[in-house]
Design a protein that fits this description.
alpha+beta, 461 residues, 44% helix
Length: 461
């Protein structure tokens, strides 16, 4: 019986790992252990990440296929579905920035100050995108030279976390590494108390420096789309490669028909006559039985088109991301669009729960940082609001809101409108505008009748 291998085996000749890197609880980090962990990550995790990265960057298998024999068309075309699927999902999930709020106004301002300083909206978008590409990525918290807390993105190509072997999978270490021009590894790793620097020299790894980080736990946070740590287009990579191959062969056939051989039977044509045919575009056959026609291979156009169409449909269907460039999106009703985006919404909701858990860990670490000014339990009181970026039909929404008049509250009516981000703030703004209009009306009547402002005010009995 043949052994089953995943999609990656044909490229890497090795089954990739997506499971956590685990050590027995209490294991002390040593230079030897650290080198073993880095080598394990390079050999068993990174090859998969490189394939996913290449797909997003439009570096598909079709470009490394063996060349066709000389004289045959050899087109190499690719449709970058990986980037389209990732960017479409990212815009749908986090195109509208996440709102983080705290019930205490002072604490809320501290959080907003950190987010503004850290350009958090952009960082969250990048964390979401790279977790979709690789299935996992990391956020590293650090303190700058001025003592303020910041965070940055780490790609899984050069970073990983180590967990203990308990059921809780507690964080033990966070490792970030890179290689110099000599191929020697350098980097840092963190535990709950400090950040350690390391470098390799003459084949020996040395840990040479440590600085406290004051975050109270390993300051590296893992972001993932699902428990399997599978990228959003990882399950359809084989379909994308098949699509690119079919599309390239289709282009080869077009070139073949445009440059078909001329078949001449029943007459002998020398080189001078052939040149004359090319120049004058005419063929003069002495024998009426002579056959002059282009030599063509059987036409497989219908079969190719059916294959390309089916592959494209399967790619979007199995990735669960809608093809929003489809012309039908612009003509469908709101409820029809909701149904068409239902699978994408389910995918986004799963991602939202994972993203929320990681963000809570971010703010739990920040609450431990003494310079930021938050209490240790402030992270428990935070609320995270995700707003999926649906295509909006304002006219239809306005009609629905109008029909709800007298049936629901004003807040519920306003929540139907996608142009209203905060119904409570909108109600307050409307009340403020109504009060201003009422004051203007009183002033107008006063100036028109000549009555003073004091006289226009109601008198107390």
């Amino acid at each position: 019986m043949d052994e089953f291998h995943s999609f990656y085996y044909g490229t890497t000749c090795n089954e990739p790992e997506t499971s956590d890197i685990v050590l027995p609880s209490g294991t002390e980090m040593t230079p030897t252990l650290l080198k073993e962990l880095i080598d394990h990550h390079q050999e068993n995790h990174v090859p998969r990440f490189k394939i996913l990265k290449n797909a997003y960057e439009n570096k598909y298998k079709i470009f490394s296929e063996e060349a066709k024999p000389k004289g045959k068309p050899d087109n190499r075309l690719s449709a970058n579905f990986a980037k389209y699927i990732t960017d479409t999902m990212n815009g749908f999930f986090i195109g509208i920035p996440i709102k983080v709020t705290h019930p205490n106004s002072d604490r809320h301002e501290i959080i907003k100050s950190f987010e503004s300083r850290n350009v958090q909206e952009d960082l969250d978008s990048e964390l979401s995108k790279h977790s979709s590409i690789y299935g996992v990525c990391y956020e590293l918290l650090y303190q700058s030279d001025d003592g303020k807390a910041y965070s940055t993105l780490l790609k899984p190509l050069s970073a990983f976390k180590v967990y203990d072997d308990s059921v809780l999978r507690r964080s033990m270490y966070g490792v970030h590494y890179w290689y110099n021009e000599q191929g020697e590894v350098n980097g840092t790793f963190s535990d709950k108390e400090g950040v350690y620097s390391f470098s390799e020299k003459d084949g020996t790894l040395n840990i040479y420096d440590v600085e406290p980080h004051y975050f109270g736990d390993v300051p590296m946070i893992e972001y993932k789309d699902n428990d399997e740590k599978q990228g959003i287009y990882e399950g359809v990579l084989n379909l994308i490669n098949a699509y690119n191959k079919a599309l390239s062969e289709k282009a080869n056939d077009v070139d073949y028909f445009a440059d078909a051989y001329l078949k001449i039977l029943g007459m002998v044509v020398d080189e001078e006559e052939l040149n004359n045919m090319r120049t004058n575009r005419t063929i003069n056959a002495d024998d009426a039985s002579a056959i002059v026609e282009f030599l063509q291979k059987p036409d497989g156009d219908a079969t190719q088109e059916n294959l390309i169409e089916r592959l494209e449909r399967l790619i979007f269907q199995l990735s669960m991301v809608a093809d929003i460039s489809d012309e039908s999106f612009g003509t469908q009703s709101g409820i029809a669009l909701k149904y068409k985006l239902q699978a994408m919404k389910n995918l986004a909701k799963t991602k939202e729960r994972k993203f929320t858990a990681s963000m809570k860990q971010r703010y739990r670490l920040l609450c431990n940082y003494p310079q930021i000014g938050l209490q240790e339990d402030d992270w428990e009181k935070l609320s995270f609001v995700f707003t999926l970026d649906y295509p909006a039909n304002i006219a239809e929404e306005a009609s629905i809101a109008a029909n709800l008049s007298g049936t629901t509250s004003e807040k519920t009516r306003l929540s139907v409108l996608s142009i209203v981000d905060d119904p409570d703030a909108e109600l307050q703004q409307r009340e403020s505008e109504q009060a201003q209009r009422a004051n203007l009306s009183v002033k107008y009547e006063t100036s028109r009748t000549g009555v003073t402002d004091d006289e226009a005010k109601p008198k107390e009995e």
